[in-house]
Amino acid sequence: MRILVVEDDAELGRRLTERLRAADFAVELATSRADAEDWPDVDRMAAVILDLGLPDGSGLDLLRHWRDRRVETPILILTARGSWQDKVEGLNAGADDFVVKPVRFEELLARLNALFRRQLGTRAATITAGDLALDPLARTAILAGKPLRLSKQEFRLLHLFLRRAGQVLSQTDILDDLYALDDERERNTVEVLIGRLRRKIGRERITTLRGLGYRFDT
């Protein structure tokens, strides 16, 4: 899952990016409003973590800009501004959550996962499909009651398939979810990952649609 972090503090941005990547997210970092406003695919991000105090403009105005353009990506405000007026203004502008710095990373991660569950329309932490269950927060996957041993990328791919079960995902869709824009990308990586995942969960669960992509069947 890809996350866009909009944060002008270089040290905080670096630490937050490192922690999120260690939690298996692909992370992009924008350090100004101009960078974030022109981001090419913000609507395809799993979430945005947005600071309000940017060097070249207001984070709230950026948030309104996105919402006015029908960007529905979940947006979590992470800011040092902690008054109730700031929270009300941020939520009314279209934020999905509001977190005041400093915050423990574990809480931030829990709030992100709560956003993802809300997006899926469920309060349960575990995503299930038949005898397959995946817990994004605990980073565990179970098939027919037995733990699945998955690499980080296999886990990310399975998470993507479960979130978008029944939908056709192109190779580009998969690459965009698994890798940051500046990461090295090779299309045969997708085929290799899907082959490995099929061997672990069953070939019949992932259908190849020639010229279109792949579909996870529940």
Describe this structure in words.
The chain folds into two domains: 119 residues, Rossmann fold; 90 residues, Arc Repressor Mutant, subunit A (Orthogonal Bundle). The longest helix is centred in the middle third of the chain and has 16 residues. It has 218 residues and is α/β, with parallel strands linked by helices. Helix 6 crosses helix 8. A five-stranded parallel β-sheet has the order 2-1-3-6-7, sandwiched between helices. Strands 8-9-10-11 form a four-stranded antiparallel β-sheet, with helices on one face. It is elongated and about 50 Å long.
**What is the number of beta strands?**
14
CATH level-4 homologous superfamily of the largest domain? Response regulator
Share of β-strand residues: 15-25%
Mean pLDDT across all amino acids: 88
For the record, the CATH class of the largest domain is Alpha Beta
Throw out a few tags for this protein.
218 residues, alpha/beta, Rossmann fold, five-stranded parallel sheet, 23% strand
Describe what is shown at a glance.
This protein is an alpha/beta fold and 218 residues long. It contains eight helices and 14 strands. A five-stranded parallel sheet has the order 2-1-3-6-7, sandwiched between helices. It has a four-stranded antiparallel sheet with strand order 8-9-10-11, with helices on one face.
Write the layout of secondary structure elements.
Blueprint lengths: L1 E5 L3 H13 L3 E5 L2 H5 L9 E4 L2 E2 L2 E2 H10 L6 E5 L4 H9 L4 E4 L4 H16 L6 E3 L2 E4 L4 E4 L2 E2 L4 H12 L4 E2 L1 H8 L8 H15 L4 E4 L3 E4 L2
Parallel strand pairs: 1-2, 1-3, 3-6, 6-7
Antiparallel strand pairs: 4-5, 8-9, 9-10, 10-11, 12-14, 13-14
Helix pairs in contact: 6-8
